[in-house]
Specification:
It is built from 15 helices and 33 strands. The longest helix has 17 residues, at 234-250. It folds into three domains: 18-288, 3-Layer(aba) Sandwich (Rossmann fold), CATH 3.40.50.300; 295-393, Rossmann fold, CATH 3.40.50.300; 410-538, 2-Layer Sandwich (Alpha-Beta Plaits), CATH 3.30.70. The chain is 28% helix and 29% strand. By secondary structure, it is α+β, with helices and mostly antiparallel strands. The strands form seven sheets. It has an eight-stranded antiparallel beta sheet. It has an eight-stranded antiparallel beta sheet with strand order 29-26-28-27-31-32-30-33. It has a seven-stranded mixed beta sheet with strand order 4-5-3-6-7-13-8, with helices on both faces. The protein binds guanosine-5',3'-tetraphosphate. Guanosine-5',3'-tetraphosphate binds at residues 33, 35-41, 62-63, 104, 155-156, 158-159, 271-274.
Length: 548
């Protein structure tokens, strides 16, 4: 390997083929869905296939095993929900898979949106009983905005659910993406016998409680093959023949380009709890899902094949392990090769940063790594250096897009509840705000007052409980008459200053130093917008970040 020195940075040139090989090994995707559709169960099964965890028997009683895998916070354990996005890595058939399990609950959507900026594709999980639900719809809007390829797993086929044809219609209509069934269920609920792979012409037979390995697989020469009747009985065989005839007539065959463009989604059926259809799903993800993709920065598009390393922080998590009160910045590598102990350029501060103990996330373990490649997500030990959205490079000034804050809908004044714990309160509040648990704003006319902004009520509870658990501090909230926030900017700094000066009571400052105009009604903000045509109002921070 040839090492060059440039402007104080050690620049590595690795052979192009090594970089390309590593890129082609990577597969980084998020699992998204409405709560309870089965994301965590699927994640667990995928980890099982990847050898990242070893659980004997089907994980039926979920929570104990699940919490060990991806729900690590106390409140998550108590409530049985995922609050923060977990990253898990494992290898399968020569591919290094980085998997993000995102919180399904709407109150934590910011964490999920940021997680989606760090992946190259998504897997949507749909509950066959409930069909397409609200959160899935919202998350798919974000995927569509970014043209992220999505695969779909229809789960819980062991239960009496909606008709699969109806589900396909619903997915197409509600998620505005064309569907391409790859597998098709044979029966449902108590009648569920397996899935028929429409591409391979193979029948995968279901046995309830199946643990690691699927099922009998019967290769048939098409649905007319009499082996089908023997395997599933004449009535289900007849129904399958009718279904397949209909599918072939209605849906064009799966086209990889359409999937990569985010226009069509391959659909798989199964039952995660019974570990049925998950291996087939994984095999297909490995074969179909995209390699690490180029990412849009404010300045230009950065391709993974570029020799020089770039990456961005999409998540910060304090106290992941209560025994080491540490803070971890999650960095997605966009291009080039990342090397341990190398000086990199921290774009926002203009300073250098050296990672002496970068970690990979393999299941719940963190192991120190010496190098990482595009698509990888690594943990950087953070002593307060990073904020969400920060970029590291080998010297170039680039800022990646797509890691915005979203306008809060719930506001509170937050105060320290224990005067003896003032220091702990401020430390905790600042760290948790930098982590993105809540947004903190200061008032221009009362710089010591802190206004808290959240998207969902549960975030308030999370803040309160984490302040107690992790910082030994407590807080109280007071209502405040605000409900609508917009980040503001103007092409003319003088006009912006005048606006801020005349509206000091209505302008807050976020942790990046950006101005936010707050209001109590849609009507009054519309009026202000009309009166100030040279001020631009945004519902996310993305367009105004000064990255100061
Ligand atoms: P989430 O992460 O998307 O919120 O869903 P999670 O995996 O926690 O699954 C939600 C519930 O659905 C769990 O039951 C889980 O066992 C169940 N489930 C997941 N996949 C299947 C499936 O294929 N078939 C059936 N019948 N159920 C499935 P729970 O009662 O809420 O929790 P637990 O007591 O089982 O842990």
């Amino acid at each position: 390997m040839f090492i060059a020195y440039k402007a104080g940075f050690r620049v590595f040139f690795c052979p192009m083929t090594e970089l390309i090989d590593q890129i082609h090994k990577r597969l980084t995707f998020a699992i998204i869905s409405h709560p309870d559709a089965g994301k965590t169960t699927i994640t667990e099964k995928l980890l099982l296939f990847g050898g990242a965890i070893h659980i004997a028997g089907a994980v039926k009683s979920g929570k104990t095993a699940r919490t060990a895998v991806s729900d690590f916070m106390k409140m998550e354990q108590e409530r049985g929900i995922s609050i923060s996005t977990s990253v898990m890595g494992f290898e399968y058939k020569g591919r290094k898979i980085n998997l993000l399990d995102t919180p399904g609950h709407a109150d934590f959507s910011e964490d999920t949106y940021r997680g989606l900026s760090a992946v190259d594709s998504s897997l949507i999980v749909i509950d066959s009983v409930k069909g397409v639900e609200e959160r899935t719809r919202q998350l798919c809007v974000v995927c569509r905005m970014r043209s992220t390829p999505v695969a779909t797993f229809v789960n819980k086929l062991d239960r009496e659910g909606k008709d699969p044809m109806e589900l396909l219609d619903e997915i197409e209509r509600e998620l505005a993406v064309e569907v391409r069934p790859v597998t098709w269920p044979v029966g449902q609920g108590r009648q569920f016998r397996g899935v028929y792979n429409l591409v391979e012409n193979k029948l995968y037979l279901f046995r309830p409680g199946e643990d690691q390995l699927p099922t009998d697989i019967i290769a048939i020469s098409g649905v007319e093959d009499p082996k089908l009747d023997e395997a599933v009985g004449p009535s289900l065989a007849k129904k399958l023949r009718e279904d397949v005839a209909m599918i072939v007539g209605v849906y064009p065959p799966f086209d990889h380009d359409e999937y990569i463009a985010g226009k069509a989604t391959p659909v798989f059926f199964g039952s995660a709890l019974n570990n049925f259809g998950v291996r087939e799903l994984l095999e297909n993800m490995v074969a179909l899902a995209p390699y690490p993709t180029p990412k849009q920065a404010d300045e230009r598009v950065v391709a993974p094949e570029e020799q020089k390393f770039t990456g961005f922080v999409f998540k910060i998590h304090a106290n992941m392990n209560p025994r080491h009160r540490d803070r971890i910045a999650f960095l997605r590598i966009v291009s080039g090769k990342f090397e341990r102990n190398t000086l990199y350029y921290h774009v926002r501060t203009g300073k250098t940063f050296r990672a002496s103990n970068p970690t990979a996330f393999m299941s719940q373990d963190r192991e120190i790594i010496d190098e990482a490649w595009p698509g990888d997500i690594i943990g950087l030990h953070d002593t307060g250096t990073f904020k969400i959205g920060d970029t590291l490079t080998e010297g170039e000034f680039v800022n990646f897009k797509g890691i915005p804050s979203f306008a809060p809908q719930i506001f509170r004044l937050i105060m320290n509840a224990d005067p003896l714990k003032e220091k702990q309160f401020h430390k905790g509040l600042n760290q948790l705000a930098e982590e993105g648990v809540v947004q903190i704003f200061s008032k221009l006319h009362q710089p010591n007052a802190r206004v808290l902004g959240v998207v969902g009520q549960l975030q308030l509870e999370v803040l309160q409980s984490r302040l107690v658990e992790e910082y030994n501090a407590s807080c109280k909230y007071e209502p405040i008459d605000l409900s609508i926030a917009h980040w503001i900017t103007s092409d003319d700094p003088k006009i912006l200053k005048e606006f801020v000066d005349t509206n000091t009571r209505r302008v807050l400052v976020d942790i990046r130093g950006n101005f936010v105009y707050v209001s109590d009604s849609e009507w009054s903000v519309n009026r202000i917008m009309q009166q100030n045509p040279k001020i631009r109002f945004y519902t996310t921070s993305e367009m105004v970040d000064k990255r100061a």
